[in-house]
């Protein structure tokens, strides 16, 4: 078995889990000013993700750790070249996490408004920049013969990268609004349903443009069929999600949006293969699955650790969501939190 290829898939799996789970966290945070009419609505929305948001973020930690151990050269080049973008993501995640914990400690409107703003910005910035980062990885970046990124942050803000960022921003926003519709009731649920239908249409248009552009960039790839297949599956799932919203099937709508994220990441992985970071300077300078991976022994040890630990992590995650599966209502919000 090619363990480097296996770990390329495992790292992809961890990023899929992160984007599916923390993606709706981002969406809920971004939707605060659009759905909440008063402080109780805001508390309801925050409480829908309150028990799970930190657990969802651990997928990013595991993905980063796996990337570091399995593909150290990929990790080094990525964090060197995308340092400012990743730093902004980290600061945004810190601000969002702090806001979840500190918002409830104050009683004044000014205090709550300050932390509400941090939740919104702390959700929107990662949702945008993750798309920008991965779009640039697909397109290729300026990597020289030493494996060093020689571009700047502004080089990443190209039309294709920004379109990728807008796609993830809208997709996560829609995903989160659907989660609110799934986890709440009453007027808040109705507003979330109406907004998810409108946001879904915009997301379909923008995502279609990004997927088509991605396919056009890889027309000569030998594995084009996989890229087109995953992109088509993502499009079908996204359209199906919008249809499910229209007929008020919140569970199906949320599940199909999650499937959209899964197939979108698979499209990215298919577009990358066999590279992990293509070079725009010279294809010979590209980092590939083989030349960026760790030693065979390291990958073997990691594989056995994954075999033992991954099922436990998945079981714990599933148990947590089962425990907190009920809807969050306005009557469940204590008066002291108002």
TrEMBL record:
InterPro entries: Cyt-d_oxidase_su2
Principal subcellular localization: membrane
Cellular localization per UniProt: Cell membrane
Keyword field contains Transcription: no
Pfam families (alphabetical): Cyt_bd_oxida_II
Domain of life, per lineage: Bacteria
Coiled coil: none
A GO CC term attached to the entry: cytochrome complex
EC number, as in UniProt: 1.10.3.-
Keyword check for Transport: yes
Segments traversing the membrane: 6-36, 57-75, 81-98, 119-142, 162-182, 194-216, 222-244, 251-273, 301-324
GO BP annotations, alphabetical order: aerobic electron transport chain
Name of the protein described by the UniProt record: Cytochrome d ubiquinol oxidase subunit II
Species assigned in the record: Microcella frigidaquae
